[in-house]
Amino acid sequence: MSRFPLDPVRLDRRQLLKFGLGASAAGLLPLGSLQASTLNTNARIVILGGGAAGMAMANRLSRRLEGARISLVEPSEIHHYQPGWTLVASGVWQSGKTMRPNADFVPAGVEWVRQPAVGIDAEQRRVSLADARVLEYDYLVVATGLQLNYHLIDGMSPDLVGTHGIGSVYASIEGATRTRDAIDAWLAKGGGKGLFTAAPTPVKCAGAPIKMTFTTLSRIRDTGRRDAFQLDYLTPGAGMFSQPWINDFLKQRFDDEGINRRHHYRLSAIDPGAQKAEFTFVGPASEFTSHHELRQEEFGREGEMTEVVDYDFIHVVPPMSAPDFVRESDLIAREGPFRGEWLDVDIHTMQHNRYPEVFGIGDVIGAPINKTAASVKAQAPVVEANLLAQMQEQPLPARHNGYTSCPLITDIGKAMLVEFGYDNDMDFLPSFPFIDPRDESWAAWVMKDRMLQPAYYAVLEGQA
């Protein structure tokens, strides 16, 4: 009997294979403009970043533009399938499954610049590289991804992941592996306190901290010693997820599972040697004083208090922002909620709000949601269509509806496929009729575990 209000569609393994696993990766995703005509141009186009967003644009634009000089700025030789890092940290995947050479994806005819970008001069239309070279452009696609700001947590460094009971799935693929090892060591102790944190900023894969909580709980249950482990989830906000139904579901599920929810708590410092974490509480005084022997009048001038918490394991989620060289450029947002932190784009057309020759895609943009690989899948055809229109001085024809997707793991072997957008935060935007977005199912788990990776590579290749 389902605990959810909708009757789920139950599938056995044979049915799921019939519906999905036998299909090609490209068949999982809507086709973009693969049949569209090409444009002859001698324009210089620079794409900053060779992750999911940048590589998808390199492949799409190389097919659509004849004669263009396209440069892809990406220093890494390895492409990382980051959606798989939670599975590595949870002990489900081996790290090698998440890595492929970037050479597999860079299209012929595109100049691969193996240097980091260090500056953007938007007025002069120039990109500075770490080796002192300068790339001039007529059009710029900013697909840099984001920056992990571990340094904003006093005492924290990504080098600490895997030591002193510290995990962080975001640090790197090596960090994901070391996070798994830190969880293994905690489980081997037979009990203790685990802290799972969330960040005070937008983050990539906002569901990852929740997934890590659920997969760790699943592993704890397997030890047969659930009562010996305490799990606390500390988040700086009043909610847990941007989609209201999922937010309510998660709060109830955490309560049912005995995971202590502590809202308005931001991780501010860590003492690795002592295995202590300092949290800053910023919220209603009543919520803090209800858990502490403290009079409300002693709460503090700004409504802030700090609390030091012992831990045996802690999963750290750092604050995030656009890379520093983007933040220091004229392309950064100057006002509004993304001021000084994220790329300033129209969230529907993906065009920069002040520099029409610049487009943004992926995690770097300032948008209320959208920092997922699924968002890139939806944004890429919009950027392609609108960039080509801009090159021809035509009105921009395409609009992004904010589509994003989170395969929300709720147990090892169960997940929910949550899909929604800007104007649908009260509703779902399901892509697969055989998966109920309100149901925890093996089908959604198989999507995450087996099917989304080949679909992701199809996006990189510009085929979806």
UniProtKB/TrEMBL annotation:
Query: Per the database record, which ranges form the FAD/NAD(P)-binding domain?
Result: 44-159
Answer whether the UniProt record assigns the keyword Oxidoreductase to this protein. Answer: yes
One Pfam family it belongs to: Pyr_redox_2
UniProt key word Metal-binding: no
For this UniProt record, give its keywords in alphabetical order, as a comma-separated list.
Oxidoreductase
One term of GO molecular function: oxidoreductase activity
Q: EC?
A: 1.6.5.-
Stored InterPro entries: FAD/NAD-bd_sf, FAD/NAD-binding_dom, Sulphide_quinone_reductase, TAT_signal
Q: What class of enzyme is it?
A: oxidoreductase
| Name of the protein this chain belongs to | NAD(P)/FAD-dependent oxidoreductase
Q: What is the lineage of its organism?
A: Bacteria, Pseudomonadati, Pseudomonadota, Gammaproteobacteria, Oceanospirillales
